Protein backbone atom coordinates (compact mmCIF):
# COMPACT_ATOMS: atom_id res chain seq x y z
CA UNK A 1 0.00 0.00 0.00
CA UNK A 2 1.09 3.52 -0.74
CA UNK A 3 0.91 4.55 2.91
CA UNK A 4 3.39 1.90 3.96
CA UNK A 5 5.97 2.90 1.38
CA UNK A 6 8.97 4.45 3.15
CA UNK A 7 9.07 8.20 2.75
CA UNK A 8 12.11 9.35 0.87
CA UNK A 9 13.31 12.91 1.10
CA UNK A 10 15.41 14.63 -1.45
CA UNK A 11 16.68 18.13 -1.93
CA UNK A 12 13.68 18.98 -4.08
CA UNK A 13 11.13 18.40 -1.40
CA UNK A 14 9.56 15.45 0.33
CA UNK A 15 7.87 12.74 -1.66
CA UNK A 16 4.20 12.27 -0.73
CA UNK A 17 3.24 8.85 0.59
CA UNK A 18 -0.44 8.91 -0.29
CA UNK A 19 -2.63 9.72 -3.29
CA UNK A 20 -4.01 12.63 -1.31
CA UNK A 21 -0.48 13.83 -0.63
CA UNK A 22 0.39 13.62 -4.29
CA UNK A 23 -2.71 15.65 -5.08
CA UNK A 24 -1.69 18.33 -2.58
CA UNK A 25 1.83 18.43 -3.99
CA UNK A 26 0.41 18.80 -7.51
CA UNK A 27 -1.83 21.67 -6.33
CA UNK A 28 1.15 23.38 -4.74
CA UNK A 29 3.28 23.06 -7.88
CA UNK A 30 0.48 24.34 -10.13
CA UNK A 31 -0.11 27.26 -7.76
CA UNK A 32 3.64 27.94 -7.69
CA UNK A 33 3.69 28.05 -11.50
CA UNK A 34 1.03 30.78 -11.41
CA UNK A 35 2.59 32.69 -8.51
CA UNK A 36 6.15 32.68 -9.92
CA UNK A 37 4.88 33.17 -13.48
CA UNK A 38 2.87 36.27 -12.58
CA UNK A 39 5.05 37.84 -9.91
CA UNK A 40 8.53 36.60 -10.63
CA UNK A 41 10.81 34.93 -8.11
CA UNK A 42 11.49 37.94 -5.92
CA UNK A 43 7.91 39.09 -5.48
CA UNK A 44 6.44 35.63 -5.18
CA UNK A 45 5.66 34.41 -1.67
CA UNK A 46 4.89 31.14 0.05
CA UNK A 47 1.60 32.55 1.35
CA UNK A 48 0.73 33.57 -2.22
CA UNK A 49 1.32 29.97 -3.30
CA UNK A 50 -0.76 28.38 -0.54
CA UNK A 51 -3.56 30.91 -1.10
CA UNK A 52 -3.70 29.98 -4.79
CA UNK A 53 -3.48 26.28 -3.95
CA UNK A 54 -6.17 26.56 -1.30
CA UNK A 55 -4.00 24.65 1.14
CA UNK A 56 -2.85 25.44 4.64
CA UNK A 57 0.62 26.85 5.18
CA UNK A 58 1.44 23.64 7.09
CA UNK A 59 0.86 21.60 3.92
CA UNK A 60 3.51 23.66 2.16
CA UNK A 61 6.05 22.92 4.86
CA UNK A 62 5.19 19.22 4.70
CA UNK A 63 6.77 19.18 1.27
CA UNK A 64 9.10 22.16 1.03
CA UNK A 65 11.37 24.06 3.38
CA UNK A 66 11.49 27.34 1.48
CA UNK A 67 10.52 29.37 -1.55
CA UNK A 68 13.84 28.39 -3.13
CA UNK A 69 13.02 24.72 -2.70
CA UNK A 70 9.59 24.84 -4.34
CA UNK A 71 11.03 26.96 -7.16
CA UNK A 72 13.67 24.30 -7.80
CA UNK A 73 11.03 21.55 -7.72
CA UNK A 74 8.88 23.60 -10.10
CA UNK A 75 11.68 24.10 -12.66
CA UNK A 76 12.35 20.37 -12.62
CA UNK A 77 8.64 19.63 -12.86
CA UNK A 78 8.28 21.94 -15.88
CA UNK A 79 11.34 20.46 -17.51
CA UNK A 80 9.78 17.01 -17.10
CA UNK A 81 6.43 18.25 -18.44
CA UNK A 82 8.10 19.65 -21.57
CA UNK A 83 9.88 16.34 -22.10
CA UNK A 84 6.74 14.27 -21.51
CA UNK A 85 4.67 16.46 -23.78
CA UNK A 86 7.21 16.19 -26.60
CA UNK A 87 7.56 12.47 -25.94
CA UNK A 88 3.81 11.94 -26.25
CA UNK A 89 3.66 14.00 -29.45
CA UNK A 90 6.25 11.87 -31.22
CA UNK A 91 4.95 8.53 -29.92
CA UNK A 92 4.36 6.15 -32.75
CA UNK A 93 5.81 8.60 -35.28
CA UNK A 94 8.41 7.29 -37.60
CA UNK A 95 10.87 9.30 -39.62
CA UNK A 96 13.52 11.46 -38.01
CA UNK A 97 12.20 14.70 -39.52
CA UNK A 98 8.55 13.93 -38.82
CA UNK A 99 9.58 13.39 -35.21
CA UNK A 100 11.40 16.74 -35.01
CA UNK A 101 8.47 18.48 -36.61
CA UNK A 102 5.98 16.98 -34.17
CA UNK A 103 8.21 17.74 -31.21
CA UNK A 104 8.44 21.41 -32.20
CA UNK A 105 4.75 21.71 -33.03
CA UNK A 106 3.82 20.18 -29.68
CA UNK A 107 6.26 22.48 -27.89
CA UNK A 108 4.84 25.59 -29.57
CA UNK A 109 1.31 24.62 -28.54
CA UNK A 110 2.41 23.63 -25.05
CA UNK A 111 4.13 26.99 -24.57
CA UNK A 112 0.96 28.82 -25.69
CA UNK A 113 -1.07 27.02 -23.07
CA UNK A 114 1.61 27.30 -20.41
CA UNK A 115 2.98 30.74 -21.04
CA UNK A 116 4.54 30.99 -17.59
CA UNK A 117 7.02 28.29 -18.59
CA UNK A 118 9.40 30.71 -20.28
CA UNK A 119 9.39 33.17 -17.44
CA UNK A 120 10.00 30.43 -14.87
CA UNK A 121 12.72 28.53 -16.72
CA UNK A 122 14.41 31.76 -17.82
CA UNK A 123 14.30 33.16 -14.31
CA UNK A 124 15.95 29.95 -13.09
CA UNK A 125 19.13 31.27 -14.75
CA UNK A 126 19.27 33.64 -11.76
CA UNK A 127 17.15 32.03 -9.05
CA UNK A 128 18.43 28.46 -9.54
CA UNK A 129 21.30 28.27 -12.06
CA UNK A 130 21.91 24.56 -11.55
CA UNK A 131 18.35 23.61 -12.55
CA UNK A 132 18.46 26.03 -15.47
CA UNK A 133 21.59 24.41 -16.81
CA UNK A 134 20.31 20.91 -16.11
CA UNK A 135 17.11 21.63 -18.03
CA UNK A 136 18.99 22.60 -21.18
CA UNK A 137 21.66 19.94 -20.87
CA UNK A 138 19.01 17.24 -20.46
CA UNK A 139 16.95 18.59 -23.35
CA UNK A 140 20.01 18.80 -25.63
CA UNK A 141 21.00 15.24 -24.72
CA UNK A 142 17.52 14.02 -25.63
CA UNK A 143 17.64 15.87 -28.96
CA UNK A 144 21.09 14.46 -29.73
CA UNK A 145 19.80 10.95 -29.07
CA UNK A 146 17.03 11.51 -31.60
CA UNK A 147 19.47 12.90 -34.17
CA UNK A 148 21.73 9.88 -33.64
CA UNK A 149 18.81 7.54 -34.20
CA UNK A 150 18.07 9.40 -37.43
CA UNK A 151 21.69 9.00 -38.38
CA UNK A 152 21.49 5.26 -37.70
CA UNK A 153 18.33 4.96 -39.80
CA UNK A 154 20.04 6.73 -42.69
CA UNK A 155 17.79 9.79 -42.78
CA UNK A 156 20.24 12.16 -41.16
CA UNK A 157 23.77 12.55 -42.37
CA UNK A 158 26.67 11.26 -40.34
CA UNK A 159 28.54 13.33 -37.80
CA UNK A 160 25.72 14.57 -35.60
CA UNK A 161 27.25 15.96 -32.44
CA UNK A 162 26.39 18.12 -29.47
CA UNK A 163 26.51 21.46 -31.36
CA UNK A 164 23.80 20.24 -33.74
CA UNK A 165 21.55 19.44 -30.80
CA UNK A 166 22.19 22.84 -29.17
CA UNK A 167 21.56 24.63 -32.47
CA UNK A 168 18.26 22.79 -32.94
CA UNK A 169 17.23 23.44 -29.34
CA UNK A 170 18.00 27.13 -29.78
CA UNK A 171 15.85 27.28 -32.92
CA UNK A 172 12.94 25.72 -31.07
CA UNK A 173 13.27 27.87 -27.95
CA UNK A 174 13.41 31.11 -29.94
CA UNK A 175 10.53 30.14 -32.21
CA UNK A 176 8.55 29.44 -29.04
CA UNK A 177 9.48 32.80 -27.55
CA UNK A 178 8.47 34.65 -30.71
CA UNK A 179 5.42 32.68 -31.83
CA UNK A 180 4.00 31.26 -28.61
CA UNK A 181 4.82 33.84 -25.96
CA UNK A 182 5.01 37.17 -27.79
CA UNK A 183 2.36 36.49 -30.38
CA UNK A 184 -0.14 33.77 -31.13
CA UNK A 185 -1.39 35.05 -34.45
CA UNK A 186 0.70 32.65 -36.47
CA UNK A 187 -0.23 29.08 -37.26
CA UNK A 188 2.04 26.89 -35.13
CA UNK A 189 1.83 24.09 -37.71
CA UNK A 190 3.20 26.45 -40.36
CA UNK A 191 6.04 27.60 -38.13
CA UNK A 192 6.90 23.96 -37.43
CA UNK A 193 6.85 23.23 -41.17
CA UNK A 194 9.20 26.09 -42.01
CA UNK A 195 11.63 25.19 -39.24
CA UNK A 196 11.53 21.53 -40.25
CA UNK A 197 12.30 22.37 -43.85
CA UNK A 198 15.20 24.56 -42.71
CA UNK A 199 16.49 21.74 -40.51
CA UNK A 200 16.17 19.18 -43.28
CA UNK A 201 17.72 20.94 -46.24
CA UNK A 202 19.10 24.21 -44.93
CA UNK A 203 18.52 27.50 -46.67
CA UNK A 204 21.06 27.41 -49.52
CA UNK A 205 19.59 27.58 -52.99
CA UNK A 206 19.68 24.12 -54.51
CA UNK B 1 31.81 72.50 -30.81
CA UNK B 2 30.69 69.66 -28.62
CA UNK B 3 30.18 71.89 -25.58
CA UNK B 4 27.75 74.13 -27.43
CA UNK B 5 25.59 71.28 -28.68
CA UNK B 6 22.23 71.38 -26.96
CA UNK B 7 21.87 68.70 -24.34
CA UNK B 8 19.16 66.26 -25.22
CA UNK B 9 17.63 64.06 -22.57
CA UNK B 10 15.90 60.85 -23.24
CA UNK B 11 14.49 58.11 -21.11
CA UNK B 12 17.79 56.25 -21.25
CA UNK B 13 19.80 58.91 -19.53
CA UNK B 14 21.24 62.28 -20.43
CA UNK B 15 23.58 62.66 -23.35
CA UNK B 16 27.00 64.03 -22.38
CA UNK B 17 27.99 67.33 -23.97
CA UNK B 18 31.76 66.98 -23.70
CA UNK B 19 34.42 64.40 -24.47
CA UNK B 20 35.09 64.16 -20.76
CA UNK B 21 31.41 63.59 -20.15
CA UNK B 22 31.33 60.83 -22.74
CA UNK B 23 34.30 59.23 -21.01
CA UNK B 24 32.55 59.33 -17.65
CA UNK B 25 29.39 57.85 -19.16
CA UNK B 26 31.47 55.06 -20.74
CA UNK B 27 33.12 54.35 -17.37
CA UNK B 28 29.73 54.19 -15.69
CA UNK B 29 28.34 51.78 -18.30
CA UNK B 30 31.40 49.52 -18.12
CA UNK B 31 31.21 49.53 -14.33
CA UNK B 32 27.48 48.80 -14.52
CA UNK B 33 28.20 45.80 -16.78
CA UNK B 34 30.51 44.40 -14.09
CA UNK B 35 28.20 45.24 -11.19
CA UNK B 36 25.03 43.82 -12.79
CA UNK B 37 26.96 40.93 -14.31
CA UNK B 38 28.43 39.83 -10.98
CA UNK B 39 25.60 40.66 -8.61
CA UNK B 40 22.49 40.54 -10.73
CA UNK B 41 19.92 43.31 -10.92
CA UNK B 42 18.48 43.00 -7.42
CA UNK B 43 21.77 42.94 -5.54
CA UNK B 44 23.48 45.54 -7.70
CA UNK B 45 23.63 49.08 -6.32
CA UNK B 46 24.34 52.55 -7.63
CA UNK B 47 27.15 52.98 -5.07
CA UNK B 48 28.65 49.67 -6.30
CA UNK B 49 28.64 51.07 -9.83
CA UNK B 50 30.25 54.41 -8.93
CA UNK B 51 32.84 52.65 -6.76
CA UNK B 52 33.82 50.42 -9.68
CA UNK B 53 33.82 53.40 -12.06
CA UNK B 54 35.87 55.53 -9.66
CA UNK B 55 33.42 58.38 -10.08
CA UNK B 56 31.50 60.44 -7.56
CA UNK B 57 27.87 59.63 -6.88
CA UNK B 58 27.00 63.04 -8.33
CA UNK B 59 28.40 61.97 -11.71
CA UNK B 60 25.99 59.07 -11.75
CA UNK B 61 23.03 61.36 -11.21
CA UNK B 62 24.25 63.69 -13.94
CA UNK B 63 23.43 60.91 -16.40
CA UNK B 64 20.93 58.61 -14.75
CA UNK B 65 18.04 58.97 -12.32
CA UNK B 66 17.99 55.42 -11.02
CA UNK B 67 19.37 51.89 -11.11
CA UNK B 68 16.56 50.98 -13.50
CA UNK B 69 17.61 53.72 -15.87
CA UNK B 70 21.28 52.74 -16.08
CA UNK B 71 20.27 49.09 -16.48
CA UNK B 72 18.09 50.02 -19.44
CA UNK B 73 20.90 52.10 -20.95
CA UNK B 74 23.29 49.18 -20.40
CA UNK B 75 21.07 46.63 -22.16
CA UNK B 76 20.77 48.95 -25.13
CA UNK B 77 24.50 49.63 -25.06
CA UNK B 78 25.25 45.88 -25.08
CA UNK B 79 22.76 45.26 -27.83
CA UNK B 80 24.53 47.93 -29.91
CA UNK B 81 27.94 46.44 -29.07
CA UNK B 82 26.85 42.98 -30.25
CA UNK B 83 25.55 44.50 -33.47
CA UNK B 84 28.69 46.59 -34.06
CA UNK B 85 30.95 43.66 -33.34
CA UNK B 86 29.10 41.42 -35.78
CA UNK B 87 29.00 44.26 -38.31
CA UNK B 88 32.75 44.73 -38.12
CA UNK B 89 33.36 40.99 -38.47
CA UNK B 90 31.42 40.74 -41.71
CA UNK B 91 32.74 43.98 -43.18
CA UNK B 92 34.12 43.40 -46.63
CA UNK B 93 33.01 39.76 -46.60
CA UNK B 94 31.07 38.55 -49.54
CA UNK B 95 28.91 35.50 -49.75
CA UNK B 96 25.77 35.09 -47.66
CA UNK B 97 27.05 32.00 -45.83
CA UNK B 98 30.53 33.38 -45.24
CA UNK B 99 28.83 36.39 -43.65
CA UNK B 100 26.68 34.24 -41.36
CA UNK B 101 29.71 32.18 -40.40
CA UNK B 102 31.77 35.26 -39.53
CA UNK B 103 28.92 36.82 -37.62
CA UNK B 104 28.54 33.71 -35.46
CA UNK B 105 32.27 33.25 -34.97
CA UNK B 106 32.63 36.88 -33.90
CA UNK B 107 29.66 36.55 -31.56
CA UNK B 108 31.09 33.42 -29.91
CA UNK B 109 34.40 35.18 -29.30
CA UNK B 110 32.72 38.37 -28.16
CA UNK B 111 30.61 36.44 -25.64
CA UNK B 112 33.72 34.72 -24.28
CA UNK B 113 35.33 38.09 -23.64
CA UNK B 114 32.15 39.67 -22.36
CA UNK B 115 30.62 36.86 -20.38
CA UNK B 116 28.37 39.20 -18.42
CA UNK B 117 26.44 39.89 -21.61
CA UNK B 118 24.23 36.81 -21.29
CA UNK B 119 23.41 37.44 -17.67
CA UNK B 120 22.53 41.07 -18.33
CA UNK B 121 20.46 40.61 -21.46
CA UNK B 122 18.73 37.54 -20.02
CA UNK B 123 17.95 39.36 -16.78
CA UNK B 124 16.42 42.17 -18.83
CA UNK B 125 13.54 39.74 -19.50
CA UNK B 126 12.55 40.51 -15.89
CA UNK B 127 14.21 43.82 -15.04
CA UNK B 128 13.41 45.59 -18.32
CA UNK B 129 11.16 43.50 -20.60
CA UNK B 130 10.81 46.20 -23.26
CA UNK B 131 14.59 46.38 -23.85
CA UNK B 132 14.85 42.59 -23.82
CA UNK B 133 12.25 42.29 -26.51
CA UNK B 134 13.69 45.17 -28.49
CA UNK B 135 17.13 43.55 -28.45
CA UNK B 136 15.87 40.35 -30.00
CA UNK B 137 13.46 42.02 -32.42
CA UNK B 138 16.23 44.29 -33.68
CA UNK B 139 18.69 41.43 -33.98
CA UNK B 140 16.18 39.26 -35.84
CA UNK B 141 15.36 42.12 -38.21
CA UNK B 142 19.08 42.54 -38.98
CA UNK B 143 19.45 38.80 -39.63
CA UNK B 144 16.40 38.76 -41.89
CA UNK B 145 17.87 41.64 -43.91
CA UNK B 146 21.04 39.61 -44.43
CA UNK B 147 19.04 36.54 -45.46
CA UNK B 148 17.02 38.62 -47.91
CA UNK B 149 20.24 39.98 -49.43
CA UNK B 150 21.44 36.38 -49.82
CA UNK B 151 18.15 35.56 -51.45
CA UNK B 152 18.57 38.48 -53.86
CA UNK B 153 22.10 37.37 -54.72
CA UNK B 154 20.85 33.87 -55.48
CA UNK B 155 22.76 32.07 -52.73
CA UNK B 156 19.80 31.57 -50.43
CA UNK B 157 16.58 30.05 -51.62
CA UNK B 158 13.48 32.15 -51.95
CA UNK B 159 10.93 32.59 -49.22
CA UNK B 160 13.10 33.76 -46.34
CA UNK B 161 10.82 35.14 -43.66
CA UNK B 162 10.83 36.12 -40.02
CA UNK B 163 10.76 32.55 -38.65
CA UNK B 164 14.02 31.76 -40.47
CA UNK B 165 15.68 34.73 -38.82
CA UNK B 166 14.38 33.76 -35.35
CA UNK B 167 15.50 30.16 -35.87
CA UNK B 168 18.99 31.29 -36.89
CA UNK B 169 19.19 33.74 -33.99
CA UNK B 170 18.17 30.97 -31.59
CA UNK B 171 20.89 28.69 -32.96
CA UNK B 172 23.50 31.39 -32.40
CA UNK B 173 22.31 32.37 -28.92
CA UNK B 174 22.27 28.78 -27.68
CA UNK B 175 25.64 27.94 -29.22
CA UNK B 176 26.98 31.00 -27.41
CA UNK B 177 25.44 29.92 -24.13
CA UNK B 178 26.89 26.43 -24.42
CA UNK B 179 30.29 27.13 -25.99
CA UNK B 180 31.14 30.64 -24.83
CA UNK B 181 29.53 30.95 -21.41
CA UNK B 182 29.41 27.41 -20.01
CA UNK B 183 32.60 26.11 -21.59
CA UNK B 184 35.45 27.51 -23.58
CA UNK B 185 37.23 24.27 -24.37
CA UNK B 186 35.84 24.06 -27.87
CA UNK B 187 37.27 25.83 -30.89
CA UNK B 188 34.83 28.61 -31.74
CA UNK B 189 35.83 28.42 -35.40
CA UNK B 190 34.83 24.76 -35.49
CA UNK B 191 31.49 25.47 -33.84
CA UNK B 192 30.87 28.24 -36.38
CA UNK B 193 31.76 25.83 -39.21
CA UNK B 194 29.36 23.15 -38.01
CA UNK B 195 26.53 25.60 -37.52
CA UNK B 196 27.18 27.17 -40.91
CA UNK B 197 27.10 23.80 -42.63
CA UNK B 198 23.82 23.00 -40.86
CA UNK B 199 22.38 26.35 -41.94
CA UNK B 200 23.52 25.87 -45.50
CA UNK B 201 22.45 22.33 -46.31
CA UNK B 202 20.52 21.14 -43.28
CA UNK B 203 21.11 17.76 -41.72
CA UNK B 204 19.26 15.39 -44.04
CA UNK B 205 21.37 12.77 -45.72
CA UNK B 206 21.93 13.77 -49.33
TrEMBL record, chains A, B:
Coiled coil: none annotated. Residues 45-64 bind DNA. Residues 1-21 are annotated as: Disordered. Pfam families: TetR_N. Keywords: DNA-binding. InterPro entries: Homeodomain-like_sf, HTH-type_Tx_Regulator, HTH_TetR, Tet_transcr_reg_TetR-rel_C_sf. Residues 22-82 form the HTH tetR-type domain. This is TetR/AcrR family transcriptional regulator. It comes from Aurantiacibacter gilvus.
Amino acid sequence: MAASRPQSDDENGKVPRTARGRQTLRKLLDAAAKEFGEKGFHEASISGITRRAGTALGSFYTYFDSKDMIFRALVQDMSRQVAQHAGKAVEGQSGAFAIERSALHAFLDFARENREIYRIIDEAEFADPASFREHYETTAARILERLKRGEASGEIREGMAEPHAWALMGMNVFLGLRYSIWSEGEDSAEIADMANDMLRRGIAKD
